[in-house]
Amino acid sequence: MSDSPQSDASPAIELINVNRRFLSPEGKSFATLNEFNISVARGEFVALVGPTGCGKSTTLNLITGLGKPSSGEVRVMGQPVNGIDPRIGFVFQADALFPWRTVIDNVVAGPLFRGKSKADAYAAARDWLKRVGLDKFEQHFPHQLSGGMRKRVALAQTFINGPEILLMDEPFSALDAQTRVLMHEELLKLWSTTKAAVVFVTHDLEEAIALADKVYVLTARPATVKAVHTIDIPRPRVLADLRYQPNFIEISKRIWQDLREEVQFGADASEAA
Amino acid sequence: MSNIAIGNGGAIVYAPGTSDAEIEAAAVAAALRHRRLVITWRLVILAVLLGTWEVFARTGIIDSFFYSYPSAIAARLYELITEGTDEAPLWYHLYITMEEALIGFLFGSVFGVLFGVALGRNKMASDVLSVYIKVLNAIPRVVLAPIFILLFGFGLWSKVALSFVMVFFVVFSNAFQGVREADRAMIANAQILGASKWALTRDVIIPSAMSWIFASLHISFGFAIVGAIVGEFIGSRYGIGFIIQTARGVHDTAEMYAAIVIIVVVVLGAEWIMTRIEERLARWRPPALNDSNG
User: Fold this and answer.
1) Which of A32, A220, A57 minimizes the C-alpha distance to B188?
2) What number of H helices and E strands is found in chain A?
3) Are residues A180 and A69 both part of a single domain?
4) Of A70, B34, B91, B112, which is most buried with the most CB atoms under 10 A?
């Protein structure tokens, strides 16, 4: 069944028994992923939480095709990953905007790279800037915007390509707490109109619970899936007071039990190193 | 006005109730005072230096035969400008030197950028060729001058060749470094957004290497002039280097210094133009903060 392309039954993303090893400059190899299994359904919002440096970002690199597994299989929409899939969008932790381009020229980058006409690209970019509330800042340069505004540009830059798979690598970790909550609302609003499958990497447990349908807890290095928690908070979610509700706190406590041991273990390991 | 500021030991503290307009006016006035003070000091230093030189040379403390003196240099400069040399007017000499330097600079920087970007983007090629580049770079450029004179003759092209090699390696290594320093996340972002290899180079790699390249252009314009003038020393019929060389032949030190003044003015002018161009191209960069106390 697996070879019929685009069969709707196939999950958006599958990692099957994936191992990933890195070579240190001295020629020693380190495992970052160990027998890693994860499956993300189409339209599903998945969060990966785990101790710092456990290999969460490596997972995303494998899905984009920028990195390759040492063994095991990575599938996107039922097909093995081979190069960068155009259906994928990626929001980075660091500022990955092009600083020498204005806001709108940053947003049109994707469509123009993909061969759209200039007129179409700019029309779409104006539309997306309006959706993220930055239509008045078209001609600004990134350095003239706040951190939150730059993230909005990054979201518009990614969403304009209509990704069916959205990968996010601690995208809001550099923002202050208030801005972060606003960005969560923004993200869920945009996501609800596209229904892309999302893999959201974070070390912030509350962030993971507030956003995701499923939270994967990863072990310390080498990372493997420790537990999967389904978050049964109905959508649309009101994020502003979500974290004070009893079931949210209940879920947090449950997942924290799993996560705490790994964080402790990861911290001990990095101190020993 | 004077009673607005309380403390004056370093940071300025304003008295309570001072309005924003007053603070701004005080800051503007302070900045202006600072600027005037800087310019005054610069002029003072210039006057002291030139004055000492003049007095020392006239009283015989230093030998004016070797060191000349400012007023003689100024007079000689005036003569050069109005009458030129026996061979040609000054402007023609200047034109020849600038032609050599500019052609060498142009080709040197274009090829430097092309090779730097190409090698920066191709790990295999850079690993293989790096050893040769190191060897070539170890050759002091000016030793090539006699060879170029033999190869290309006494005319324009021997000096262009020398300017070229002076410029090429500086621009090359900066362009190479700039490409290597391009931000990883930004590159990955462009790739995922759909950039082809060529689009990535053109739209991400080169723009992000641009500040490195510009830094090298600033330095290497001076080098281009060095190349042209050294070439003229070895063999030429016109040019600023030729003026200095013939002046040396007749022990006219004032003329040698006058020629140096001319070339300094030219390089400063080129520097100014390049800074303006860079400012235009780098509009996207955050402006340096204006420290009103600085």
Assistant:
1) A57
2) 9, 10
3) yes
4) B112
Q: Which residues of B fall within a CB distance of 8 Å from A104?
A: none
ipTM reported for the complex surpasses 0.85? yes
In terms of domains, do A67 and A189 share one?
A: yes
Which of A70-74, A204-208, B12-16, B27-31 is predicted with the least confidence, judged by mean pLDDT?
A: B12-16
Q: If you count them, how many residues does chain B have?
A: 294
Among A93, A110, A143, beta carbon nearest to B193: A110
Q: Search chain B and give the residue with CA nearest A105.
A: B203
Integer Cα distance of B273 and B268 in angstroms: 9
Residues A153 and A182 in one domain: no
Query: Which candidate in B189, B279, B289 is best for mutational testing of the A interface (most A CBs within 10 A)?
Result: B189
Q: Which of A109, A133, A162 is the last residue in one of the domains?
A: A162
Q: What is the pLDDT of residues B115-147, one digit of tens each?
A: 999 999 999 999 999 999 999 989 999 899 999
Beta strand A71-76 with A79-80 is antiparallel
Which residue in B244, B227, B246, B243 sits closest to B159, CA to CA?
Answer: B227
Find out whether the peptide bond into A222 is cis, omega within 30 degrees of 0.
Answer: yes
User: A41 with A123, same domain?
Assistant: no
Same domain, A130 and A258: no
Read off the amino acid at residue A89: G
Domain count, chain A: 2
| CA–CA dist B224, B115 (Å, integer) | 18
A31, part of any domain: yes
pLDDT band at B11 (very low <50, low <70, confident <90, very high): low
The residue of chain A nearest to residue B185, with distances taken between CA atoms, is A96
Q: Is residue A19 situated within a structural domain?
A: yes
Q: With respect to residue A57, please indicate whether it lies within any of the assigned structural domains.
A: yes
What's this model's pTM, rounded to 2 decimal places?
0.82
Range of the domain at A25: 13-87+164-272
**Residue B13 pLDDT exceeds 80:** no
A49 and A145 both lie in a single domain: no
- Number of helices and strands in chain B (H, E): 12, 0
Query: A94-145, pLDDT tens digit by residue?
Result: 889 999 999 999 999 999 999 999 999 999 999 999 999 999 999 999 999 9
Q: Say which CATH class B70-281 falls into.
A: mainly alpha
Q: Which two tokens stand for residue A219?
A: 């072990």
